[in-house]
Amino acid sequence: LCLIISFCFGGFPAADIVGVLMWLHRFGFQTKVQAAMADTCKQWEGTTNAMLKLMQFESSDDSPKPTPQQKYTHNLWKRLDGGVKYFNSSLKSPTALFKSGSKEMVAIGQADIITLPFALSSVADAPETSNALQGMLNAIKPGALLVYLDHTEGGQTELINNLAYWCGMRRIYFMKEMNYAMPKYEEAEILKSYAKDLDNPIPRESKITAIVYKKPSGYSYDRRMKMSRREQNNVKQAQIRLKKSNPDFKLFRPSFY
What we know:
By secondary structure, the protein is an alpha/beta fold.
């Protein structure tokens, strides 16, 4: 069995870990998964542990026969290797993300799949946030995937696009204006608590954009010589747009230059 490492940053990350497990199961990947998650809301650690405990369901002689759903979630749980690591981190306070060798940066650099669900729309558009995001994108290893999911309204999609191009990533999937709605059974108190931590309301329904980026496997070997003229132009245009939208924002020089 091979090993896939997943890192989920923000936006109900516990559900994202289950989503990665479901996707691998659906397409028949026989692999173990090491998972880590980071979020500004501390209660997600407890929610994650409670969810994993439910997935560990094992029937005894005295207990009723497990349902198909219980068998399915238990099979997902068996794919986890070592549980789930939790980091209490935020793009609004990105100091730790800048530190080379920080736990968050190490986890991101080791991950094969990084998910970024509804993280950018929940924080203010500031140079500090953009710098933290740029540091994350630079830390992603060659061949890894970044799955971005966020509300269509706002400038977060343009920001992630420009920074991804600048950091040498390629967009391999794009879909916008998809309908998104919170489940009706989602507890209002949990959403209120999450909104309080973020200082931002959580919409129950909205249009969303989904993008998947990949950092090319040849990234660390003279990447600039392998870039097409179109890719080089995309990087230059991204730099112009980033500087125009926020003159105070400092761009780090990617390693392929």
